[in-house]
Amino acid sequence: MSINTKDKIGKWMVGSDVGGTFTDLTMLDKESGTVLTGKILTTPDDPSRAIFNGLDQMAKQYGLDLKDVETFIHGTTLIANTMIERKGVPTGLITTAGYRDVIEIGNEMRFDIFDLFMKKMEPLVPRFLRREVRERVDSEGAVLVDFHEEDVRQAAALFKEQGIQSVAIAFINSYRNPEHEKLAERILLEEMPEVSVSLSSDVAPEIRELERFSTTVANAYVKPLLRTYIAKQERSLAAYGTDASVNVVMSNGGLTDAESAAAYPIRLIESGPAAGVIAAAFHGRMAGENQIIAFDMGGTTAKMCLVRDGSPNRVYEFEAARMQRFKKGSGIQLRIPVMEMIEIGAGGGSIAHLDNMNMLKIGPESAGSVPGPACYDLGGEDPVVTDADVLLGYLDPDYFLGGDMQLSAELAERAIANKVAIPLGISSIEAAAGIHEIVNHNMVSAARIHIAEKGTDPRKFSLVATGGAGPVHAYGIARLLGLGRIVCPPATGVASAAGMLVAPPMVELGRSYVSSLDALDWAYLRSLFADMRKNAAEGLGKVGVREEEMETMYTAEMRYAGQGYEIAVKFPESMLIDEDTSVLETAFLKEYEATFGHCPQGVSLEIINLRLRSFAPEQVSNLRFNRYDPDGEKALKGRRNVYFHEIKSFADTAVYDRYRLVPGTTVPGPAVIEERESTVVAGPNTTIKVDGHLNLVIDLH
Fold this sequence. Notes:
By secondary structure, the chain is of the alpha/beta class. The protein has 17 helices and 36 strands. The longest helix is centred in the N-terminal third of the chain and has 30 residues.
C-alpha cells in the first residue's frame, strides 16, 4: 500500500546502499515515522546514477518533492571494489630508510603451504615509488636519526614526474611521535600543493608497521576517488534544491560525516554489509532476540556476523582484496575498526559451473547486474543461484520486485540444462536442487567453523535473515545448523539501506601504549584517553551530537608478556581516576579463561593498545514500512509447487502476500511469503508467526 504524501512538508532521511547487483533505497518521513522503500539495478559504470534514478522513481511514485530531503546516508562498495579491481589513483609512499619493502615482505606467511606456484599479492605501490627518508625515532618517541628534508623533496620531484596523485607517509614508530611525518607532509605540500596526503599517525596510530603501513597506503590509494564520489553526490542532492547533509556508514556500523569519510575512506570498506548487521541486530531486538546470527545474502556475496546481547562483534583487523577469496593471508592487511563479518558463500548472482573434475561448483564469479542471471533476460547465459531458485518454485517470475521486473523461467531452465544438467546427465530440477543445496552447505560449513572459533554453539542463536536472497536460503541454512528460530524483518531485501536509518553516530579511535601492567604511567594513560575523547566529541559534533549525549566505552588490548596476540577487555572510566590495575587484571583473566579454558600462572600482563568508542543512541527507535496493509482475508495469494530438500520433491505450498498478513497471525509451513524486495521460504514442520513489529518469526520443529 502506498501512502498519501502529496500534502506532506516533513523532512526526509534517505538511506542508500549500493550493492554489486542492486541498489537499495529507503526514505524515512521524520514526522510520521513511515519508511518508503525502493530497489533498482546497480549501474556499475557510475554507482551514483542508480541512487538518484531510484530517488527520482520514488519521488514520482509517491508524489514527493526531493528538496525536502534533510539527511542523506550512504553505504558504498566503491572502496572494496577499487581495491579488488586495482583502480585507485597513482600512489607513492614515503617511509623510513630501510623500511620501504615492509608492505611487500608482509608477515612472511604463505597463505597456501601446498601451492608450489603460489603468487603473492602485489603491493598497491610499486617499489620505485616507495621512497626512503633518513630519519628514525625509537619506540618511546625519542629521535635517534634527525629528519633529512632533502630526501622528501627528492621524492616529491619523482612523484611529480610520475604523475602521482596521492602519497602515504609512514615512518617507523610514528604512532609514538608523529612529528617527522608532519614535517614530511608540510614539505611535500610545498612541492606538490594539489597532492592528497595520508599520514600513518592519523590513519592508524598503532604498533606493528605492516598493518599501519598497508592501511595508510590503502587509504591514500582510494582517498581522491572517494572525495570525488562524495562531491558528486552532494552536487546531485543540491540539484533537488536541498542542502541535505551527506553522512556515511563506516565498517564498524557507525555513522560519520562526509568530511571524515573523505579523510579516512579505508574505514568504509565494509560499510554496506555493516549496515545490514545493524539492521539485523535492530530487528532482532524488536523480536526479543538478543543472541542472533546476522545472515545477509545479496546478489554477489553472503556474509554473517554474531550478535551477542544485542551488540555485534567488532574487531580491529581486516583483510581486503584477497587473491583467493577464502584464503586468509592472501589479501591486504588493514588495521581498522570493523564488524566481525565473515564471507560465508556466494550470492544470488553467483555462477554455477563444472570444474576440471566435472564437479558442480558455485562462484566466486558473479553475473552481477550486467548481464545478470539468465532469468533476467538481459543477455546472461550462465546459470546462477537465482535461476535455480526460480526453477525450484521459490521465486515467482511474475512478482520479482513486486512485478516491476519479469523473470523468465524458460531462460533459467535453458541455462541450467546447457551448462550443468546435460553435462552431468541429470534433470534440470536435480541440477537446480544441487545448486541450491551446495550453496547452503558451503555457507553452513563456513558458519560452523567461525562459530566454533568463538567458543560457542550455533544452537544458542536465532537466525536473522536479510538481503534479497537471505530469506530464500534462511530456512535451509537454519535446518542444517540445527537452529530453532528464524526472524525475517519487514522489507528485508533492503535491510542494509534500512540499517542506515538506525545506525548510531559513532567515532572509534585507538592508540598504542606498550607497558607492563605494574609499570603504567597513569598520567600518560589519562592524556591519551583525554585526547581521544576530545577528538571523538569533535567528530560526533559534525553529525549533530552534543557532548552530553555521548556515551563512551573504554577498552584495553592486553596479553601475557611475550605473546603475539591480544585480548580486548572493557573497563570503566573510573579506573583511570582510581589507578586500579586490578580492574584490568580481573577483566583480562576472565576473558582469557572464557576464550582458552585456562590461565597461565605467574606470567606478567602487558597493555598494547588502548581504544575508545564514543557514540550516540540510535536516531530512530522504530521503523514503520509503508506498504503494509493488513487484511487477513486477502493474505493468501494462492498455492504453487515448491521444492524442499528434506523430502526431495515438490510440495503443494501456500503463498502469502506479506503486506496483508495481520500481526498475531500464525500459519503452518510449508509456506512462501512474498514481498516486493524478497521472498521468505519456510519448509515443512515449521510455524510462521507475524509479531507486533511485522517480523516473520519462523519456528523450526
